[in-house]
UniProtKB/TrEMBL annotation:
Cofactor: Mn(2+)
Keywords from the UniProt entry: Disulfide bond, Glycosyltransferase, Golgi apparatus, Lectin, Manganese, Membrane, Metal-binding, Signal-anchor, Transferase, Transmembrane, Transmembrane helix
Protein name in UniProt: Polypeptide N-acetylgalactosaminyltransferase 3
Record field: transmembrane: 12-30
Subcellular location: Golgi apparatus membrane
Organism of derivation: Melipona quadrifasciata
Length: 475
């Protein structure tokens, strides 16, 4: 009896092992086919070893955020002279950076490269070796290419780019990428707004250069430092296009970037639409495709953050991956908006200084006053992300940034403003210095909803305290 039982057990063990092996092979085959199908939905993009810092285990998914850090005055860096800063060292090599590949500076130039890095807080030598019209990969999904292949009549746009002591190569590569990768009939003009730069090559030399571009391009200049918000307002006030498209001065647009933005705004003028923001490496200038399945939000410090979609939202996006989707907040540097709606809604808060917080202020205002903030997954624009800022902040970074954020909280966050101030002593210190009466009157005039409506309807996944959720420590 026992020998027979042992034989039966051995037989069952063999059968079970074979069944398990077949199951593993089936699952592996299915998973491989799924991955191949996912990859086939992308146009080919070569990813390189030095891009791993930005890429997760799937090879392409990247989450990026707006820079918040210390500012560094280049004139206080060692071995940096005024003559060096004012010298335009643009020296392009025909194939450097081609197709978004990294630039490798020869070892003999390392010392000079590190010296020049201090000027703009990125690898200026690498940037200056890349042609202004360098090629980039088409990073769109195949369905995006088909979706926007035959769009109808779209509104014309004014491209507004603010710069302050920007490098020649990054500024003009931004401009050339707009011209080379946008349908000509959609470009009304390009407006460069100089926020009181003191670099010699950004004055008459720049004026002469832009006169010869294929798209009407003009340079507006401020005689004093007015900051990003007021410089953008200066550009918007001079713009003629039906749509305003704002870009930072160190971007590179990819093919097909503009049509998804303009189509969304054309369908509903209350939509404010941003592209997917890809990454330009600050050291090698390699171009890395970013992740499309995330949205913008913010933390308790009111610092912008990218959050990955999950659950219901992720399922909805996967079912309709090419259409613009709503986001609680935008990064703020890159977006398109109907010009009339921009001014009807109160444009920018012109009491905000230099830079910081204007993206959340506009996001809250758009949502609470009847519009929507969206991301167009078929639009990709590369942005140069730095680890520190080369710009000076008159009055100090903290004074400027937290003063701006205090304005945002006081005007738009209602009782949640007190929650913010309890966690941010710097902002609380500056709250009483903010003249906000005009913005509160604007909110009343526009009949805007309260911040609780925003949390309940725009970002129900939020982590702020409410009656049905709590914040604190369990002891």
């Amino acid at each position: 009896m026992w020998p027979r039982l042992r034989k039966s057990c051995r037989t069952w063990s063999i059968v079970l092992s074979i069944t398990l092996l077949i199951g593993i092979l089936v699952v592996w085959s299915w998973k491989k086919r799924e991955d191949e199908n996912s990859r086939n939905d992308y146009v080919s993009l070569r990813l390189l070893n030095n891009q791993r810092d930005y890429i997760d285990h799937k090879g392409v998914h990247v989450v990026v955020g707006h820079y918040i850090g210390d500012s560094v005055d280049p004139m206080k860096a060692p071995n940096i002279t005024k003559d060096l800063i004012n010298k335009n060292m643009f020296d392009p090599r025909p194939f450097e950076g081609k197709d978004g590949n990294p630039v490798l500076v020869p070892a003999k130039d390392f010392y000079k490269m590190q010296q020049l890095f201090q000027i703009n807080r990125f690898n200026l030598m690498a940037s200056d070796r890349i042609p202004l019209n360098r090629s980039l990969p088409d990073v769109r999904r195949k369905r995006c290419i088909m979706r926007y292949a035959n769009v109808g009549n779209l509104p014309r746009t004014s491209i507004i780019i603010v710069f302050h002591n920007e490098a020649w190569s990054t500024l003009l590569r931004t401009v050339y990428s707009v011209i080379n990768r946008s349908p000509r009939q959609l470009l009304e003009e390009i407006i460069l707004v100089d926020d009181n730069s003191d670099r010699d090559f950004l004055k008459d030399t720049l004026d002469e250069h832009v006169k010869n571009l294929k798209v009407p391009t003009k340079v507006l200049r401020s005689r004093r430092r007015i900051g990003l918000v007021n410089a953008r307002l200066l550009g918007a006030n001079h713009a003629k296009g039906e749509v305003l498209t704002f870009l930072d001065a160190h971007c590179e647009c990819t093919v097909g970037w503009l049509e998804p933005l303009l189509e969304a705004v054309a369908k509903n003028k209350t939509r404010v639409v941003s592209p997917v923001i890809d990454i330009i490496n600050d050291d090698t200038f390699s171009y890395t495709r970013s992740f499309e399945l995330h949205w913008g939000a913010f933390n308790w410090d009111l610092h912008f953050r990218w959050l990955t979609l999950n659950g219901r939202l992720l399922k909805e996006r996967r079912e309709n991956i090419v259409e613009p989707f709503r986001t609680p907040a935008m990064a703020g540097g890159l977006f398109s908006m109907n010009r009339d709606y921009f001014f009807e809604l109160g444009s920018y808060d012109d009491q905000m200084k230099i830079w910081g917080g204007e993206n959340l202020e506009l996001s809250f205002r758009v949502w609470q006053c009847g519009g929507s903030v969206e991301i167009a997954p078929c639009s990709h624009v590369g942005h140069l992300f730095r680890k520190s800022s080369p710009y000076t902040f008159p009055g100090g970074v903290g004074e400027i940034l937290y003063g701006n954020l205090a304005r945002v909280a006081l005007v738009w966050m209602d009782e949640w403003a007190e929650f913010y101030f309890k966690f941010n002593a710097e902002a609380a210190r500056l709250r009483d210095k903010q003249p906000i009466r005009a913005r509160l009157e604007l909110r009343k005039k526009l009949q805007c909803k309260n911040f609780e409506w925003y949390l309940d309807n725009v970002w129900p996944e939020h982590f702020f305290p409410k009656d049905d959720r709590f914040f604190g420590r369990v002891s």
